[in-house]
Amino acid sequence: MGGFCGNKNILAPKKCSGEARHRGLTQNSAPGPKGADIKEFGDSESGPPLIPMIHAIEAGNKPMVAAIEGFALGGGLELALGCHYRIAHSKARLGLPEVTLGLLPAAGGSQRLPRLIGVPAALDLIITGRHVTAAEALQLGIVDQVTDHHTVDAAVKFALSVAGRPLDARRISSYSCPPVSGDLDALFEEVMRKVRRGARGAIAPVACVQAVRAAATLPYARGMERERELMATLFTSGQARALQYSFFAQRAVSRWSTPSGARWDASAPKPVRKVAVIGLGTMGRGIAVALAQAGFPVVSVETQEKQLTEAKRAVSQMLERGAKRRGVAAPLDKMSYSSNIQAVADVDLVIEAVFEDMGLKKKIFQQLSAVCKPDALLCTNTSSLDVDQLASQTRNPELVVGMHFFAPAHVMKLLEVVYGPRSSPQALATAMQLGKKMGKVSVAVGNCPGFVGNRMLKAYVEQAFFLLEEGATPELVDSALEEFGFSMGFFKVSDLSGLDVGWKVRKEDGLALPGVSTGPSARIRQGRRYSPLGDLLCQRGRFGQKTGSGWYQYGKPGGRVATPDPWLHSFLEEYRAQHGLVPRRIDPQEVLERCLYALINEGFRILEDGIAAGPEDIDCIYVFGYGWPHYRGGPMFYAAMVGLPKVLERLEHYYRAHPDVPDLQPCSLLRRLVASGSPPVQKWKEAIKKLHSQL
Ligand SMILES: CCC[C@H](O)CC(=O)SCCNC(=O)CCNC(=O)[C@H](O)C(C)(C)COP(=O)([O-])OP(=O)([O-])OC[C@H]1O[C@@H](n2cnc3c(N)ncnc32)[C@H](O)[C@@H]1OP(=O)([O-])[O-]
């Protein structure tokens, strides 16, 4: 973005840096087009002070025209709002995305935008942080003109055309917010209720509403004071640090590397023009939709005719709904269907998404290897099976990788790209690039049971079961986790996805055994503590929402409202009595420490094993795939915030109390990081490399 005045002097710098220390909000430097330089938050300031500069621009006697090309986000747009006119290129994007970084637009954005476009529209932009196109910005009244030509030329022409006109009516800070239809207080109360419900503990959206309310109810100067106070609170909060860490973590994971030395910048992806999906169950349908929405021609193969007919209808509906939401045409022409696997002969990449059964998947990989082009990439959407075993069924094992999507696959942002020991760097690069084109946060992970996400989750789930044995209820565990910021606690999630899912896996792993023994060995499997509680519920047909009861009661099969179940409480009491377990009072703090620190401990093991390249990879997986509250950065960032010595001390404490639970034994990497002074999370990758080289 550039700023121009009527006599063609360029006043606003094209690119400046430095910004936004909370104590220096009136001393901030000018932002670039993408807003303030997030890297410099908390560092020393540089460049001219932002807020006084915007005030000086607005107060000036020469007409100032902002010429907006590319992005005008955050401080970039705030600077433009200080100008008297704004001209945008048709491809420009504008927005105040501060909320996504745990902040609010604190260079006058929260005060000027509602004055310019009205309270409801400004609330929408500021609370969601969404970017708008130039066309929408024009419609909203944020910009005065949109051009398809050279924006600077258009701005200069415009500036000359308005030179000499009075500017008082162009100074947004002097406006009052346009009146709203209905009661202003009622509007803010309603918005605040919605925001608090959706924010689930995030403080920035709430502060954004408060700031806009100040714009609507206070004179500009007092509104600016309020904006500054609110920003000061946000700026020093852990939430802003977590969200800013997450911003860079998302970008860091695309620069993947593997322990064998393969790297993103040394591995060119293969071109992918046409893709196939095998299996049109829930996952296959979602994957096919996501691919078509990303513009890929997709061949979908389903051998069961009935399933194929149902899937065709469902996929078309999903595509149409998505298109309606986005205001574009549904890409129905991208889809073709077949019941014959030969239909994939000419595709560049296949994603297998059949039932989670190794025998079936092996057979499909043998067929794919025979049918597909020799250089086609063969990917599996398995959530836990050994990718290497599948690779060994094919002619070219180096072309096999895992692409682990999360349900619903066309909605969830996460993709774990799983490389086996034989996967080529090019295959990995291709799958990572395809994920990016599908709008996913793609994270490269090594091949091991459960990969990263599910491997860590196992430790967390186990603790939740143990806590029930020791005296907790599902309600107690869930409310502690929900209070932490998860949208649902573990037991509600389990009821939603079906208890039979985990039961099947435990049976396959030889853990869930038929019959209940009451002796001391009943709660020990494969040499470690085991809780059969989930298996016992499944044996009674309590699979969760679909059967009307699980860890909670739902009134009827398919019911969605969880209510505490007295039967379950008596069942737990009987179970404890039967196994000689004396219930004790468990507080929410213990729930969090046991569940989260066990999960984090497994995260350290994963880093130690080189299955994830760095803490950013794990954190993105948890934030984008497992509902970890975004404003808490992810499990490894959270561990760093809590303090590694404290996490270590609590794990030691719980391991002493439960020596039969290996998940609670602190991982040696955690010990070594603590011994090396607990470096900040951004330095762990380096520290781990150094520690590995010392071994
Ligand atoms: C007083 C208060 C004032 C004000 O209210 C506060 C603010 O303005 S808050 C700020 C409000 N502004 C925002 O929230 C905008 C945040 N930025 C974005 O949303 C996207 O970057 C954007 C849409 C602009 C471009 O997407 P794209 O084309 O896919 O490109 P990309 O995303 O891959 O980025 C390319 C490279 O640029 C880097 N980088 C980018 N922005 C910043 C930044 N602000 N800072 C530092 N670095 C930034 C990014 O890390 C990456 O580096 P690398 O080393 O190559 O990994």
Calculate the mean pLDDT score and round it.
92
Number of strands: 17
Shape: globular
The ligands found in this model are:
(S)-3-Hydroxyhexanoyl-CoA
> Terminal Cα separation, in Å?
51 Å
Report the sheet-strand fraction: 5-15%
Strand order of the largest sheet: 10-9-8-11-12-13-14-15
Largest sheet: 8 strands, mixed
Write structural notes for this entry:
The chain is globular, with a radius of gyration of 28 Å. Helix content is 47%, strand content 10%. The chain is an alpha/beta fold and 695 residues long. The two termini are 51 Å apart. The relative contact order is 0.07. It is built from 27 helices and 17 strands. The chain has an 8-stranded mixed sheet, sandwiched between helices. Strands 1-2-4-7 form a 4-stranded mixed sheet, sandwiched between helices. Helix 4 packs antiparallel against helix 8 and helix 7 (184-199) runs antiparallel to helix 8. The longest helix has 22 residues, at 305-326. Residues 19-20, 25, 28, 31, 34-39, 71, 73-75, 78, 97-98, 101, 103, 105-107, 109, 248, 251 line the site of (S)-3-Hydroxyhexanoyl-CoA. (S)-3-Hydroxyhexanoyl-CoA binds at residues 19-20, 25, 28, 31, 34-39, 71, 73-75, 78, 97-98, 101, 103, 105-107, 109, 248, 251.
